[in-house]
Give the backbone structure.
Amino acid sequence: VLRCCFQSQELDAFGRGGENLISSAKILIVDDDLESRLLLESLLRGEGLSVHAVSNGLDALESVERVQPDLLLLDVLMPDLDGVEVCRRVKTNPETRLIPLLLVTGLSATQDRVRGIEAGADGFLSKPFEPIELLARVRSLLALKAYTDELDRAESVLFTLARTIEERDPYTAGHCERLARRSVELARELGLGPGEIQALERAGIVHDIGKIAVPDSILLKPGPLAPEEWTVMRQHPVTGERICSPLRSLRPVLPIIRHHHERFDGSGYPDGLSGESIPLTARVLQVVDIYDALVTVRPYKRALSSREALETIRRETERGWLDPRVTAAFLRLCARDAPEPS
Ligand SMILES: [Fe+2]
């Protein structure tokens, strides 16, 4: 068929290694009360931290975008946009949701804390606070931020690597992005949960990262592969899983990377899994992967029309290679997008 086929030890919250990262951190203070704003500023500046301060919620949202702080200290009671609302907006924006956020409140009312937790706050500080408690919380949250930044960077490296591998093969340009988008649509059609949908979106990009170990002479070969070349090609799901496995955040993606070339009847690779023992997310990505490869021109084949590709997928399902339930959902999806003329 188709060929397409850190855990950081230096970020201890109070450890010496984390000091450098923490002292270069930027903190945004939002408080309408001048006295408490100045108090917070002087305490944090005294620790050598870089501090920005604003007096209302709207300025806070603008500063979050402009300053890109590593920590937000937000007063709850402010006119117009209160601290909880600012918190909710920061935490629902994918660009800013990983910024740790501490709500500072003069109220001990449980109701405010519940609202704050629901809005995504990472912690609370009650006024009047002890400076030692403030500094301990700030250090702890900055250490957390440094850790998530590091994970973020590691993930970006892998995603860039995956796209670079895709670019090695001019015939597969845009394949990863299409796969990510279409897999998400198919997952929704099958009623999968948000965790599985997110895993599929990322798997669309990184699923073939293991092809980094496949030489161009095999990857771009215009004719059929020799048996020993197939042996190399069939290693790519295992290699890909190994490359991504150190990143805990990619754990839900690993089964998709490893099993996206299994077949429903057990004749696929690398483990020869069959039926329901193949993760459903891998079965979803596989159908979309095959369809995209069929409708794209490759060095060894022409591009099929959508109708021909769907017919091939139907045939492969009848042969027992693909999950009939996933195929049926994919056919429904395609029929909705571009109904076949009767
Ligand atoms: Fe693959």
Notes: Residues 1-18 have pLDDT under 50 and may be disordered.
